[in-house]
Specification:
Blueprint: E1 13-15, H1 19-23, H2 34-60, H3 73-81, E2 89-91, H4 97-102, H5 107-111, H6 125-128, H7 139-153, E3 168-173, H8 180-192, E4 196-202, E5 205-206, E6 209-210, E7 231-235, H9 239-254, E8 260-265, H10 284-291, H11 295-305, H12 311-334, H13 342-345, H14 353-366
Parallel strand pairs: 2-3, 3-4, 4-8, 7-8
Antiparallel strand pairs: 1-7, 5-6
């Protein structure tokens, strides 16, 4: 397998050699235009600014918790940018804010989960093509395969001629790749040739455990061979490489050839969540040495060197990101609390005696009725 020196310092898109690489059909996607490259940079800056702001919001008490993605902007924006929101469906974890932003999801509605106003987000999943935020580790993988298999059962995937076949893309990390649910989902998808892209963000850490201590064999992409599916291991800090690899994987699955696994090698530069202290398991020197070059700054240098953008454009992108962040912050502050009784109303379609007793007890204690 083509590998990279570290999760952050490699370049280009690697691919498993031999029979599996030949299984990945389709020609490389068309090169990105200058306008698209500038759009990608603007998205990455917007995501970076919103992400760092969300950490400050948590410290200020505006939101109770947040899962940062500092350093993963290229992997998230690049893959989300490749989604066709007219037919595909994305199944995120709790750390895909950049994907949501790249897909055009309303960010106040998205951040409502972190505000603890609504579980899964206030946005409409059917309209946005982004499933509710999933906090269960590996849970979104099962949902994605189920939706993708539904495409096959309905006769849409691999059989239509009007280009409406949808592909599911599911996100998970190197830590979640060790979950039994993930392996069952990949096996089922491969057997059923479900149109699904498994997008792994290998950020070097499963909370406090380094990848090499919990991923047997050293690579999540290598596991695809056991399920007979093609896999790509790519530089997750190169946004262009991410877009190209994701588009190629979508084309393969859309044509009825079954699932693809993408492992984007990146690095989580901050804590696992706002309740995590990364200083307990790695030093600042370790973080600096292992993280490699910042993906946003790296892309900025590339655009500048290629003459695609200038300092005026970069300044405008940052100003737009700050304006957007202010709008989102105001929207989050305006979100009012949900009625407490909703926690009991939305558990089962038909309530149970135990749930009714809990609801009565809660009303007694909180509403004094």
């Amino acid at each position: 397998m083509d590998t990279m020196p570290s999760p952050a310092t490699g370049s280009g898109a690697g691919q498993l050699p031999g029979p599996l690489s030949r299984q990945l059909s389709g020609a490389p996607a068309e090169p990105l235009t200058d306008d698209q490259l500038r759009e990608l940079y603007s998205l990455m800056v917007a995501v970076r600014h919103l992400d760092t702001s969300a950490i400050a919001w948590q410290r200020q008490g505006l939101i109770p918790g947040y899962a940062p993605e500092l350093g993963q902007e290229a992997a998230q924006v690049g893959s989300g940018y490749a989604v066709d929101t007219t037919r595909d469906f994305v199944f995120p974890t709790y750390r895909e804010m950049g994907v949501a932003r790249a897909m055009g999801v309303d960010m106040v509605a998205y951040m409502s989960t972190h505000k603890a106003t609504w579980h899964g987000g206030l946005y409409n999943p059917l309209e946005s093509r982004l499933a509710p935020i999933q906090a269960v580790v590996g849970g979104s993988v099962l949902h994605a395969v189920g939706w993708a298999h539904g495409q096959t059962l309905s006769g849409i995937a691999g059989t239509n001629t009007d280009g409406t076949a949808g592909v599911a893309m599911t996100y998970f990390g190197d830590g979640a790749s060790s979950q039994g649910d993930v392996h069952e989902a990949m096996n089922f998808a491969a057997v059923m040739r479900a149109p699904v892209v498994f997008f792994v963000q290998n950020n070097g850490w499963a909370i406090s455990v380094p990848t090499e201590r919990q991923v047997a064999g050293g690579s999540v992409a290598a596991r695809a061979a056991g399920y007979g599916m093609p896999a790509l291991q790519i530089d997750g800090n190169d946004v262009v490489a991410v877009v190209e690899a994701t588009r190629r994987a979508f084309a393969h699955a859309r044509a009825g050839n079954g699932p693809v696994l993408i492992e984007a090698m990146t690095y989580r530069r901050g804590p696992h969540s706002t309740s995590d202290d990364p200083g307990r398991y790695r030093s600042l020197n370790d973080e600096r040495d292992d993280a490699g070059e910042d993906p946003v700054e790296r892309f900025r240098k590339r655009l500048l060197a290629d003459g695609v953008a200038d300092e005026s454009f970069f300044a405008e992108a940052l100003a737009a990101a700050k304006t957007e962040e202010e709008h989102i912050r105001a929207g989050i502050q305006a979100l009012g609390p949900r009625p407490g009784m909703e926690m009991f109303d939305l558990v089962f379609q038909e309530t149970t005696p135990a749930l009714q007793a809990q609801a009565a007890s809660w009303r007694e204690e909180s509403e004094h009725v």
